[in-house]
Design goal:
Elements (H helix, E strand, L loop, with lengths): L2 E5 L6 E6 L6 H17 L2 H8 L1 H8 L1 H12 L3 H25 L3 E4 L3 E9 L2 E5 L7 H12 L3 E5 L5 H12 L7 E3 L4 H9 L4 E5 L2 H12 L4 E5 L5 E4 L5 H13 L11 E5 L3 H12 L20 H16 L3 E4 L12 E4 L16 E7 L2 H9 L3 E2 L1 E5 L4 H7 L5 E4 L14 E2 L2 E2 L4 H5 L3 E9 L1
Parallel strand pairs: 5-6, 5-8, 6-7, 8-9, 10-11, 10-16, 11-14, 13-14, 16-17
Antiparallel strand pairs: 1-2, 3-4, 4-20, 9-19, 12-13, 15-18
Helix pairs in contact: 2-5, 3-5, 4-5, 5-6, 10-11
This protein binds nicotinamide-adenine-dinucleotide (NAD).
Length: about 450
């Protein structure tokens, strides 16, 4: 049996291992899922929600142990690991009911007729997930699918198989065998899963992999939800609260070592306030020294793997070689560690302003006015999140002109309960969360009868 070893990115030590699923066995696994889905899908959604709900408390009861595993495997500071695990547990407790309500059938009265609008299960869902939120991403892609009555075959990232398996094991204490299965491995297992007889592929990951999945899914016209990468802009205009803007810029550039799909990746600051903003940003960056992610008080752990660090270091070196100024951080560190880094004088043509960085870098450039900021912010193939710090009503007016799925005005992008998680342009196809997002895991059907 081949195994996949998971390594601690802070130390290089092995954390544990899982058996690799032979790619040739994946069709049989999907067939088992289809068999199990029949009875699962026949239950009312609320019954499925009731079965799964105790998993929320089970996650919370084991939150310290799970957070330790998450941090050891992925590298984010323990406090952040704990907050991810706690969020998963707390969210699951209520989200199962929100999903059940969203997919409940409803009657639409007409003239002499009644139409029942149904949100039925699709069948078997492949959930393929990345490593940056290694427990939350499996929950994001699998939970709505399960409550909606599908069986799920989950393929977590090969960087973080253990915490994903721990999450699946907790749910599998409650749900019937075969309804939630896990596939471990890398590209080959992902490809085999996409090629198998699944009805929907719910994918979160890079644009490059999303494109491959879309191409591979075309033959079978398989349904897709693709949550992809981004290059999120932050616009800071004259009159903004500069302390708040700089604090946000630092937090949203360095959180999880910048390995967040809605990280701030490009900063456009008006020339009249650029010096004042940058001085504050450098001060704020000093609060992010890299260190042992398990040590109390650490806010910046290692990057998940060497290849990720090398990519970021290459982008920084390229920007500096082409005229950008390194004003904080930048020095090499041992292993997978990388310091919080601030660059100024970057230009739109540099790779660091075009290709997703996914690292702890705040890249600042100046703009003359709001129009130029909007033009440059929109000059990207991506459009997941964007944030504007400016006085009102200008801030909202600028926000309305940005082509992104989720926009924050004088705050981050996270919306009120019920908000979907959506990207525009190459940041995604389809979306999830919120009632409409939950319904994307369903087959919509209408049945019309005489009144
Ligand atoms: P990745 O695309 O390299 O891998 C994601 C998953 O796809 C892994 O499980 C991997 O094994 C699998 N995979 C690889 N090749 C495959 C193939 N040919 N067919 C099927 N599956 C395959 O992404 P990553 O490096 O793990 O994650 C980082 C990326 O995820 C970043 O681009 C980030 O922006 C994105 N992300 C997006 C969101 C969002 O909500 N939009 C959220 C988190 C992360």
């Amino acid at each position: 049996m081949t195994t996949l070893t998971s390594f601690n990115p802070a130390t290089g030590e092995p954390v544990g291992e899982v058996p690799v699923t032979p790619a040739a066995e994946i069709p049989a696994l999907v067939a088992r899922a289809r068999e199990a889905q029949r009875a699962w899908g026949a239950l009312p959604a609320q019954a499925r929600a009731d079965i799964i709900r105790p998993a929320g408390q089970a996650i919370l009861d084991r939150k310290d142990e799970l957070a330790h595993l998450l941090t050891t495997e992925q590298g984010k500071p323990l406090a952040d690991g704990l907050s991810e695990v706690t969020h998963c547990g707390e969210k699951l407790l209520t989200e199962v009911d929100e999903i059940a309500e969203a997919v409940a059938p409803r009657d639409l009265p007409g003239e002499g007729l009644v139409t029942t609008l149904r949100y039925d299960p699709l069948g078997v869902v492949a959930a393929i997930t990345p490593w940056n939120f290694p427990m939350l991403m499996p929950q994001w892609m699998a939970l709505p699918a399960l409550v909606a009555g599908n069986a799920v075959v989950l393929k977590p990232s090969e960087q973080t198989p253990l915490i994903a398996q721990a999450w699946a094991d907790i749910l599998n204490e409650l749900i019937p065998p075969g309804v939630l299965q896990t596939v471990h491995g890398a590209d080959d297992q992902g490809k085999a899963l996409v090629a198998s007889e699944v009805n929907l592929i719910a994918f979160t990951g890079s644009k490059a992999t999303g494109q491959k999945i879309m191409a591979a899914a075309a033959g079978g016209l398989k349904r897709l939800i693709l949550e992809l990468g981004s290059k999120d802009p932050l616009i800071v205009l004259e009159g903004a609260d500069l302390d708040a803007a700089a604090e946000f810029a630092a937090r949203n550039s360095f959180r999880n070592c910048g390995q967040v799909c809605v990280s701030t990746e490009r900063i456009y600051v008006q020339d009249t306030i650029a010096d004042a903003f940058t001085a504050r940003l450098i001060e704020a960056a000093k609060a992010y020294p890299a260190g042992d992610p398990l040590a109390e008080g650490t806010v910046l752990g290692p990057m998940v793997m060497r290849a990720q660090k090398d990519h970021v270091a290459r982008q920084v070196a390229d920007a500096v070689a082409r005229g950008a100024k390194l004003v904080h951080g930048g020095a090499d560190m041992p292993g997978n560690f990388m310091p919080a880094t601030v660059l100024t004088g970057v230009t739109q043509d540099m790779d660091i302003m075009r290709t997703e960085t996914f690292g702890p870098v705040a890249a600042v450039t100046t703009i003359r006015n709001a129009d130029e900021a909007v033009e440059l912010a929109n000059d990207s193939e991506y459009g997941l999140g964007a944030v504007v710090f400016a006085p009102e009503p200008l801030a909202r007016e600028v926000a309305s002109r940005i082509d992104a799925g989720m926009i924050g005005v004088n705050r981050g992008i996270h919306g009120a309960k019920g908000s979907p998680w959506a990207g525009s342009k190459h940041s995604g196809i389809g979306y999830h969360m919120g009632p409409d997002g939950h319904r994307q895991f369903c087959q919509v059907r209408t049945i019309t009868r005489n009144a």
